[in-house]
Design a protein that fits this description.
Blueprint (H helix, E strand, L loop, with lengths): L10 H10 L2 H8 L3 H12 L2 H17 L10 H19 L30 H11 L1 H7 L4 H12 L4 H8 L3 H18 L17 H15 L3 H7 E10 L4 E4 L1 H10 L10 E8 L2 E8 L8 E11 L2 E8 L14
Parallel strand pairs: 1-6
Antiparallel strand pairs: 1-2, 3-4, 4-5, 5-6
InterPro entries: NTF2-like_dom_sf, RNA_pol_sigma-70-like, RNA_pol_sigma-70_dom, RNA_pol_sigma-G_actinobac, RNA_pol_sigma70_r2, RNA_pol_sigma70_r4_t2, RNA_pol_sigma_r2, RNA_pol_sigma_r3/r4-like
Keywords: Sigma factor, Transcription, Transcription regulation
GO biological process, one term: DNA-templated transcription initiation
């Protein structure tokens, strides 16, 4: 958990870097916070590439505003404040990022992107809450909040900031922050029914045996074109989305597989599969590769991110992997 309390960086070193006027020295000190700031921006924006851009914008703003750092707060707190406001400025300019209407749970979120686990913070304190607050369901739920409610929720409930620090960062009153947090929590409970909502208490981020087994079976079913096995892995209240195509479907297992087949999958030309087990957003995932007739290699097709409940797939979110080298998947098999 990141908080606004004790310093985790040498404040004297940071102040010296600020006063030196040396951009290389300043960058070296601030760079250590890149991963956690990028995750913070991702929680705000739900898009990996935008989070990268806003993290870079944060460092640029920090350099330009370096003389405003007076040591009254930890360097990381100062950077989080800048990152939060960079994200809010970004959202203010993007009409396509307005909060998702409550009646459309996650069907209109074409900008959602998966987050590669290798880019998550390595800090063990961040890791104990990372899975709960990086899973796709949480990221999507946050997008239902107006930008400032979104910022308040992340600062208060995810990062554990006191109300006074959040208010200062957002230039709001403590009463406004408290009210915004209450409204945000109501929305999050509506969007995450039955999910764990206490994000500040420790939670494992390791995959369970069930999750690993389901991913292995999911890949095996594809490689064998075993539709019965694939059907058996899905719950009968499956939530399925294939981004960037809009629309989340609530479907039975049989209807889901029938729909994939009617769309051309598992038919000639789309029946020679290989898969690689991986994780994104600290969730089990399968990177699927397809070999076209006459092609000696299997080419990336999609990555399926799975939410597993009681040994079955309850949610399947597919992403086109084209143009996403940051997922660090093999270019061919």
């Amino acid at each position: 958990m990141t908080n606004a309390g004790p310093l985790d960086a040498d404040e004297d070193t940071f102040i010296a870097a600020v006063r030196s006027g040396d951009p290389a020295r300043f960058a070296l000190i601030t760079e250590r916070h890149r991963r956690e700031l990028q995750v913070h921006c991702y929680r705000m924006l739900a898009n990996y590439e935008d989070a990268q851009d806003m993290t870079q914008e944060t460092f640029l703003r920090a350099w330009n505003k370096r003389e405003t750092f007076q040591g009254h707060a930890a360097p990381r707190t100062w950077l989080y404040r800048i990152a939060t406001n960079a994200c809010l400025d970004f959202l203010d300019k993007r009409n396509d990022r307005t909060p998702v209407p409550a009646e459309l749970p996650d069907s209109e979120l074409p900008y959602l992107q998966p987050y590669p686990d290798r880019m998550l913070p390595e800090d063990p304190q961040e890791s104990v809450v990372a899975r709960e607050t990086i899973e796709l369901a949480f990221i999507v739920a946050v997008q239902h909040l107006p930008p400032r409610q979104r910022a308040v929720l992340v600062l208060r409930d995810v990062l554990g900031w006191p109300a006074s620090k959040a208010a200062e960062a957002l230039e709001l009153t403590v009463a406004s922050v408290t009210s915004a947090l209450q409204r945000a929590r109501v929305t999050m409970r509506e969007q995450l029914p039955g999910r764990r909502l206490d994000w500040r208490s420790p939670a494992t981020h390791e995959l369970s045996d069930d999750e690993r087994g389901v991913v292995k079976s999911y890949i095996d079913a594809h490689e064998r074109n075993d539709l019965d096995r694939l059907t058996s892995l899905l719950r009968d209240d499956l939530r399925f989305a294939m981004l960037p195509d809009p629309g989340t479907v609530l479907t039975t297992a049989e209807d889901a597989v029938d729909g994939w087949v009617s769309g051309g999958l598992f038919q000639r030309g789309h029946d020679d599969w290989r898969g690689v087990a991986t994780t994104v957003n600290r969730m089990p995932a399968a990177a699927l590769y397809l070999r076209a007739p006459g092609d000696p290699e299997y080419r990336p097709f999609a990555i399926a991110v799975l939410h597993v409940v009681d040994g079955k797939i309850a949610e399947l979110t597919g992403f086109d992997v084209t143009g996403k080298p940051w997922l660090d998947l093999p270019p061919a098999l």
